[in-house]
Amino acid sequence: MLDTVRRNVAAVLGHGGPETVEPGRAFKDFGFDSLTAVELRNRLGTVTGLRLTATLVFDHPTPTALAQHLHHELTRDAGSAATSVPVSVGLDQLEAGLSAMTWEEIGRTDVVSRLRELLAKYGDAQEAPSSSAALVDQLESATDGELFKMVDEDLGIL
């Protein structure tokens, strides 16, 4: 969660990367004002799916404190609200999370292989099982960019 907070703080402030965001440094020392605080709140709300207050940055004044708060909120709600979230909302959150990451960061996760596995498993819901093998072959030979393009097209993003 701290990496997510630092990555989004860096994006809001226009910094080169999350390594420039010291976890224990106060947001006010980074130059946060009400506009940048709201922008960070919006980004983190999109990534986490949480409804966050406008005073979030002021109530939790460092990246570490904010990450701890978000972690608490996510784990507190994990037993109830998270299980009733529509799949399309989860995909929106996945897209928002991926858009906040660099290709290098995405490459260090297993998200692409997991997406391949899910597409292979579920494929086109209207396809007959016999055509699933062709889909698996197509997915296995696709590049990362082609996979994201397929997902974007299927979701109607492009």
Instruction: State the shape.
Output: elongated
Strand content: under 5%
Strand tally = 0
Structure class: mainly alpha
The total tally of domains equals 2
For the sheet with most strands, the description reads:
none
**CATH 2nd-level architecture of the largest domain:** Orthogonal Bundle
CATH superfamily of the largest domain: ACP-like
State the share of residues found in helices, binned by percent: 55-70%
What do you see in this structure?
With 158 residues, the chain is mainly α. The chain has two domains: 2-83, ACP-like (Non-ribosomal Peptide Synthetase Peptidyl Carrier Protein, Chain A), CATH 1.10.1200.10; 86-154, no CATH class. Helices cover 64% and strands 0% of the residues. The chain is built from ten helices and no strands. Helix 1 packs across helix 3 and helix 3 (34-48) packs across helix 6 (87-99). The longest helix has 15 residues, at 34-48. It is elongated and about 55 Å long. Mean pLDDT is 80; it is low at 80-84.
